[in-house]
């Protein structure tokens, strides 16, 4: 299992457009993925689902932890973290 955390810097958080890009990227991977908000396992989602991401309500300043388990886990976490580092309007 691979895990990485990041603080969301996008001024609008993960609204529809960045959530869509994030979900599209997540779906490229075979690994089981999870996104956890502010370290609370009760506030987690499947990043392969845009509706799941949007329902999580991610705003600027939130900490997101991405976990991946599977054959392409390292590549998945690396790409998903890089998407979160971008300023997407």
From TrEMBL:
Top-level taxonomic group: Bacteria
GO biological process: phosphoenolpyruvate-dependent sugar phosphotransferase system
Coarse class of the protein's main subcellular location: cytoplasm
Compartment list: Cytoplasm
Keywords: Cytoplasm, Phosphotransferase system
Domain HPr: 1-89
Gene3D superfamilies: HPr-like
One Gene Ontology term, aspect cellular component: cytoplasm
Official protein name in the record: Phosphocarrier protein
């Amino acid at each position: 299992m691979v895990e990485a955390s990041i603080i969301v810097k996008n001024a609008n958080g993960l609204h529809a457009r960045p959530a869509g890009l994030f979900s599209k990227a997540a779906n490229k991977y075979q690994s089981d993925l999870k996104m956890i908000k502010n370290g609370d396992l009760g506030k987690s989602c499947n990043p392969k689902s845009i509706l799941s991401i949007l329902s999580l309500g991610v705003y600027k300043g939130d900490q997101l932890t991405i976990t991946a388990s599977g054959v392409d886990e390292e590549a998945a976490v690396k790409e998903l973290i890089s998407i979160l580092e971008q300023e997407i309007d």
